[in-house]
Amino acid sequence: MRQENINKLEKILGAGNCQVDPDIRRQHSCSKTALPDAVVYPESSQQVAEVLKLAGEEGIPVVPWGAGTMACRGLLPLAGGLVINLTRMNKIIEYDYENMTAYVEAGIPLGELQKTLRTHNLYWPVEPVEPDTCTVGGCIAAGASGPSKLGYGDVKFHILGLEVVLPTGEIIHTGGKTVKNVQDYDNTRFLAGSWGALGIITKAMLKLRPVPEKETTVFLPFKQLKEAIAAARIIRNDTLPVALELLDGAAMAVLARAGWKADGKGPGVLVAYNGFREQVDTQVDYVKKQFPAATILEGEAAAAAWQARRQLFPVFAGASGAILASVAIPFTAMEEFLTRARDELKQSRKGAALAAHFGNGHVHIFLDEAPSAYAGVQETVNRLATLAGDLGGLLVVDNIDDLTLTRRWVEARGRAVMELLSRLKAAFDPQRIMAPNSKVLAYVIDNSRAVS
Amino acid sequence: MVDQSTLNELVRIVGRENVLTSKVSLNTYMYDASLVYGQPEVVVYVQNAQQIAAIMKLASSKKIPVTPRGGGTCLSGGAVPQRGGIVIVMTRMNRILEIDPENRVAVVEPGVTNMELQKAVAPYGLVYMPDPASQKVSTMGGNLGENSGGMRGIKYGLTRDHIIGMELVLSNGEIVQIGGKLEPIAQELNLNALLIGSEGNLGIATKIICKLTPAPRANRTMLATYKTLEDAGTSVSAIIARGIIPCTLELMDNKIINAVEDWLHIGLPVDAGAILLIEVDGWDAGLDRQAQQIMEICRENGATDVKLAKNAKERDDLWTARRMAIGAIGRLAPNYDMEDATVPRTKLPEILKEVNRLSQEYNLAIGMLAHAGDGNLHPLVLFDERNKEQMERVEKVRAALFRKALDLGGTLSGEHGIGLAKLEFVRWAFNPEELRFLRRVRLAFDPSEILNAGKTVPDTDTAA
Question: What is the ipTM of this complex?
Answer without folding.
Answer: 0.96
